[in-house]
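Milestone M4 deliverable, item 7.
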Amino acid sequence: MEPDQVSFQNPVFIPGPTNIPEELRRACDMPTMDHRSAHFEDILQPALSGVKKVLKTKIAEIFLFPATGSGGWETALTNTLSAGDKVLACQNGMFSQKWIDMCERHGLDVEVVSVPWGKGIPADRYAEILAADKDHQIQVVLATHNETATGVTSNIAAIRAAMDASNHPAMLFVDGVSSIGSMDFRMDDWGVDVAVTGSQKGFMLPVGLAITAFSPKAIAAVESAKLPRWYFDIRDMRAGYKINGYPYTPPVGLLNGLKTSCAMLLGEGLDNVFARHARIAQGVREAIAAWGMELCAASPELYSNSVSAILTPEGFDANALVSHAANKYGLAFGGGLGEVAGKVFRIGHLGSLTDVMALSGIATAEMCMVDLGLDIKLGSGVAAAQEYYRSDNSLSIQAAA
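Output delivered:
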């Protein structure tokens, strides 16, 4: 068969949208129902409570908007801030930069800490800036937990510690779009005031839900916030939830999918989910090392368990590999974005995956590299990953079924 005939049968290895388990596909595919009927409560309330458990929060309120993670960013900003308010942010990749751009378009005063792509958020620099802010002008600290463009995971607990060390009252907003549901996220323990994610990554659903969580402190900021909002006003959503409804038409099928997704993640056990992602990611990293390549992430403590951004040799167009994989083998890898466009290709290893599925992605990447003339021995990365997967017996194969 030609690639266009088989591509939909192959798993994807992009860092989102991720592979959708059959159970979740069926959960989203449901007949039209009256979302103002009593039956909607049986979908909405378990979805809300399930997300709280995945985020490890007992005190936050969950707000689910028909949108994407970007809509979640806007929800966080517009519900808590006013034009001219000061925000502290780090630019260390494409998605952190996009959130900064959104802040600037909303008329916020953004102090940007720029670090090379491949580095994490410098908690020590945040600590210096916050300690120097004696008048507490900074209202919000932004943090991208997992920078999807570079495969870098930053230490959110360290950022909270930096804020606490200076006794600074700013709120902490965290983009967990490519981490939540795949890597440990502790909203209460880390003192996160707004957490943002989407349906299409760790929750293994189609695109279409902005998943947000607001701490009591963030909710208290809503009444004094002056940025315009209507569609993303959590007050309207909150009022709707009290009568088990929405302020407008809800995406019932996606919400039913989220209810089922949370049940799947919690049924597997969050620790098992995180261990599965760590295991698959390490197998991919073993393959990368066997190819003689390096990650964009600058050091092991930054390595992401949801996506690896792989640096290709100088002079080689990494995007050509992504195109070749799609055109010849019907398989999707992630291309490089922004400053690393053409310099990296990305293997997404999050959501509905097993190590057996990961091996197919590793093998295909090898075929592409050999096809395009790189000095890679077929089977080298596969063998390295196989040895790792064989030696680690912690796999729970029920995970992505």
